[in-house]
Specification:
The chain has 2 domains: 241 residues, Beta Barrel (Thrombin, subunit H); 93 residues, Immunoglobulin-like, CATH 2.60.40. It has 6 helices and 20 strands. It is mainly beta and 342 residues long. It is globular and about 60 Å long. A 6-stranded antiparallel barrel has the order 8-9-10-13-12-11.
C-alpha cells in the first residue's frame, strides 16, 4: 500500500500499469471535465472549482490547504491542520502551507508546527503559528461509512490548485497494510495524500492515505475513517464531532446511522460485547425512543429491543450482519443494516 504525498518516478510507472476499476487513466493525470456535482459527474475525473456546480462542495473548500506535494485540511477554527503521517515525513515539523489554492490564486499562507503524529492511522496534526483566525474548518463525523453512499474528495493532485472528484464508498471495516481503512471510487493522484473524504452533507468521513499499488484490490482508493481514529487515537477526540444542526432529512437518511461494537470482556468461547447506536448527530440522538435489532438466527433472542440510546449487551464469537430499526419520537422509523464487528 502506498501513500500519495510524494513518490519516485519508478512508483509512478508501476502505478500506471494498474489502472484498476478504470479509476486511474493510463495516459497520466486524469483530465478535467465540465459541469460537475455530487449527482452528475464522470467517474475518475478531476474538476476545478470553477467547474463544480454544487453548494455543498463549494462550502467546504475554504478549509483545504496545500502542503508541498500533498494536501491537508483545517479541522478546528483555532487553526489545527490535519494531513498524513507520511506527508510529515517529507514536510518536516514546521513549514508553510497555502489555504484554498484555486486557479485564481490562494487565500493565505500559513506557518504551521507539528502537534503530534500517529503512524498506524497515518495522521499528523499541525497548528497554525500565531493564528489570525477563526479559520473555516472541516467538520468530522465518526459514523461508519456505508457502502454505496456518495462521497467526494477535495485535494491537490500533482500539486495543482484545488480539484474535486466524486464517487461512492466501495467497502468499509477493512484493514490494509496494518491500517484501518475504507475504500471508495472518488479519484485521487500523487499529491492527494491528506485529502478529506466528504459525505453528502460535507462532513469528513475519512482522511485519504493511499491506494493499492500491488493490484490486490484492483486499485481501489483508501482512507482512514474518523470513527476508528476517534476510538483509537485519544489525542484526536477533542476534534471529533457529529453533524451540527442537522435537518430532519439528515436524521431520516439511513446512510447516516451506524453501529459501534465494544468488547467488554474476552471469553474462552464467547466474548461479552456492547453494541451502541451511532446517530448522524447529537440532535438525531435526542429523537431516539427505542432500537430493535435483528441478529443472527442462532441467538436465543434474535430480535431484542432497547430503550433510547441504551447499549445492547451480547455474547458472541464472530462478526455478523445485523438489521436495525430506530423508533423516533416524531413517529418515524429509520431502518438500516451494519455489521457487529469488534
Amino acid at each position: 500500500m502506498r501513500g500519495r504525498g510524494d513518490a519516485s518516478h519508478d512508483h509512478m510507472r508501476r502505478r500506471l500499469t494498474l489502472c484498476g476499476l478504470a479509476l486511474l487513466l493510463c495516459a497520466g493525470l486524469p483530465t478535467v471535465s465540465s459541469a460537475a456535482s455530487r449527482s452528475d459527474y464522470e467517474l475518475g475525473r478531476f474538476y476545478s472549482l470553477d467547474e463544480v456546480d454544487d453548494a455543498v462542495v463549494q462550502r467546504v473548500t475554504g478549509a483545504v490547504v496545500r502542503f508541498n506535494g500533498a494536501t491537508g485540511f483545517i479541522i478546528h477554527a483555532d487553526g489545527y491542520v490535519l494531513t498524513n503521517h507520511h506527508v510529515r515525513a517529507s514536510f518536516g515539523r514546521t513549514g508553510t502551507v497555502e489555504r484554498r489554492v484555486t486557479d485564481h490564486g490562494y487565500a493565505e499562507a500559513l506557518d504551521v508546527e507539528l502537534v503530534f503524529d500517529d503512524e498506524r492511522h497515518d495522521i499528523a496534526l499541525y497548528r497554525v503559528v500565531d493564528p489570525a483566525g477563526p479559520f473555516p474548518a472541516v467538520e468530522l463525523t465518526t459514523r461508519t461509512p456505508a457502502p454505496g453512499e456518495s462521497v467526494f474528495v477535495l485535494g491537490h493532485p500533482s500539486s495543482q490548485p484545488l480539484r474535486a472528484s466524486f464517487g461512492h464508498v466501495l467497502a468499509n471495516n477493512l484493514e490494509i497494510a496494518g491500517r484501518p481503512s475504507v475504500e471508495y471510487s472518488a479519484q485521487t493522484w500523487w499529491g492527494s495524500s491528506g485529502s478529506p473524504v466528504f459525505d453528502a452533507q460535507g462532513r469528513a468521513l475519512a482522511i485519504h492515505w493511499g491506494w493499492d499499488s500491488e493490484g490486490i484490490s484492483n486499485g481501489r482508493l483508501t482512507g482512514v475513517p474518523f470513527g476508528t481514529i476517534e476510538r483509537e487515537v485519544a489525542a484526536m477526540r477533542p476534534f471529533m464531532t457529529q453533524s451540527r444542526g442537522p435537518t430532519a432529512a439528515a436524521c431520516d437518511d439511513p446512510a447516516g446511522w451506524s453501529l459501534r461494537t465494544t468488547r467488554v470482556a474476552d471469553g474462552s468461547r464467547l466474548d461479552d460485547l456492547e453494541v451502541v447506536l451511532v446517530p448522524p448527530s447529537r440532535a438525531c440522538e435526542e429523537t431516539v425512543l427505542a432500537v430493535r435489532y435483528t441478529l443472527h438466527p442462532s441467538f436465543r433472542n434474535p430480535t431484542p429491543m432497547v430503550d433510547g440510546m441504551r447499549p445492547l449487551s451480547l455474547r458472541a464469537w464472530g462478526s455478523f450482519a445485523a438489521g436495525v430499526q430506530v423508533v423516533r419520537s416524531d413517529g418515524d422509523t429509520v431502518t438500516f443494516s451494519d455489521r457487529i464487528v469488534w
